[in-house]
Amino acid sequence: MEKKNKINKKDIINRKTKDTVFTDLFRNKKYLLQLYQDLHPEDLDTRQEDLQIITLENILVHSMYNDLGFIAKDKLLILVEAQSTQSVNIALRMLLYLSQTVKDYLQENRLNVHSKKQIILPTPEFYVIYTGEDKKGNRTIKLSDTYKEKQGLPQLELTINIIETSYQHKIIWQYIEFCRILNEQAKKYGYTKEMIEETIKICTDEDILKEYLSKRKKEVMSIMSTLFSQEEVTKFVIEEEREEAKKEGKEEGRKEGMQKGIQKGMQKERVGIAQRLLKLNISIDDIIKATGLDKETINTLL
Prior knowledge:
Blueprint: H1 9-17, H2 21-26, H3 29-39, E1 51-54, E2 67-72, E3 75-82, H4 89-108, E4 123-130, E5 140-142, E6 159-163, H5 171-189, H6 193-205, H7 210-215, H8 217-225, H9 230-256, H10 258-279, H11 284-291, H12 295-299
Parallel strand pairs: 3-4, 4-6
Antiparallel strand pairs: 1-2, 2-3, 5-6
Helix pairs in contact: 5-6, 6-8, 9-10, 10-11
């Protein structure tokens, strides 16, 4: 068995800007149409030429480009691929995407919001394709979950549909199965070339994204070679921040006394870890587990 690849700073930087298999797969309108038909089986008229892909990667510069937006005739669909459904910030991300996308739509179609004529927008739909292991059944996330005041009907709401294990044998199901197999192979081989090759072999043998993986094997290998699980990235950040905190703690100890220096160093370590994980778009719940900080403290770092 090969040893796990060591994660370094260059890998973390690359992780912010590379496509994922999710976006590479659905940038192809053939597969994008299949995804749309999974979500709207009643629509038998929409064709590939009716789909317009919307660029989303510039909205949140610190996150991986694993989010997707497209217009299908009179609908605007925004999707996020996620390994954790616990981050309520997904709803905020969707709101930012919607705001920017509507702005771009108005500019591209030369629509004036000050005009007397009513502007008609594509109807927005929001989805999270959940690829994590903790299945709890399809449900929703609401923007109002983030509000301080939760009484009454919110004047601004955004509802996200979470997709997990339904759509049997459809392309959404195939993508989720691909992620499941990938995670299983990562446990066996670590984040190595062997893990990627074995994942592609199993998927093609089991007719999971077979056509895509066969035609795009080289590109998928390149994409996956730069990706690491959230757990691996978190471990890397924690280790690096602890080393830095030890140095700062020793310096504080010389200035203010050993006990006080240790306490300051530990707090700086936790805050430093939280700040870096936020930039990597790690969920708040996972940051709480990694640092021991409370939610209120982490929110002040946003």
